[in-house]
Design goal:
- The chain has eight helices and no strands.
- It has helices spanning 3-9, 14-25, 28-44, 55-74, 92-111, 114-124, 130-137, 141-161.
- It is elongated, with a radius of gyration of 18 Å.
Length: 162
C-alpha cells in the first residue's frame, strides 16, 4: 500500500476507530492512545495491508483487540465520558434522576455477559449500526439484532422494577 492510498483508505477510518475505542474503554484519553498506537502499527505494516480482505474490519478489529487488552489489564472500566445529561431547563431533581438512571444503566450493561455487553456498548455508546457491529465483532447481523433485543429487554425489565 502506498502512502497516498494509506491516506485515502486508512486515515478516514480514524474517527470510527476512535468511537469504537471510546465505547469499549469509556475513556477518551485512553481511546486516543489506543487509536494512535493502532495507526502507527497500521503504518508499519502498510505494505501487507493490500492482502487484507476488509480493511475497515481489520482496523476496527485491531482497535477492539487493543481495547480488550487494556480492559483486561485494568480489570475495570471507567464511566463513558461521551454520555452526558443535557439540562435544558430541567430541574436539579430531574438532572440527578437522569444521572442515577444513567449510572444504573451503565452498571447493568457491565453485568451482562461479555459479548452482550460489548454489543450493547457499541450500539449505545458508539452509535454503531448493526452491520458495523457485526463486521467488527465477527457476529452475523441476525445475532447482533438478537443480542441487542435481549439486552434491551433485560434493561427494560430492570428499569420497570425500579
Amino acid at each position: 500500500m502506498t502512502e497516498t492510498r494509506f491516506n485515502e483508505d486508512v486515515l478516514p477510518l480514524y474517527a470510527d476507530m476512535f468511537r469504537v475505542a471510546v465505547a469499549l474503554l469509556g475513556n477518551r484519553e485512553e481511546a486516543k492512545d489506543v487509536v494512535q498506537n493502532a495507526m502507527v502499527k497500521l503504518w508499519t505494516i502498510k505494505d501487507k495491508l493490500d492482502e487484507v480482505r476488509s480493511l475497515k474490519a481489520y482496523c476496527y478489529g485491531m482497535v477492539r483487540n487493543a481495547c480488550l487488552s487494556r480492559i483486561a489489564q485494568a480489570r475495570a472500566t471507567e464511566p463513558v465520558d461521551g454520555l452526558m445529561i443535557v439540562a435544558d431547563g430541567s430541574t436539579p431533581h430531574r438532572i440527578v434522576e437522569a444521572q442515577d438512571s444513567l449510572r444504573i444503566l451503565k452498571q447493568a450493561i457491565e453485568t451482562m455477559p461479555p459479548e452482550q455487553s460489548e454489543v450493547m456498548k457499541l450500539s449505545a455508546y458508539a452509535g454503531m449500526s448493526n452491520p458495523e457491529i457485526a463486521e467488527l465483532t465477527g457476529l452475523s447481523e441476525t445475532n447482533v439484532r438478537a443480542i441487542l433485543s435481549r439486552g434491551r429487554k433485560k434493561l427494560k425489565l430492570l428499569f420497570s422494577k425500579i
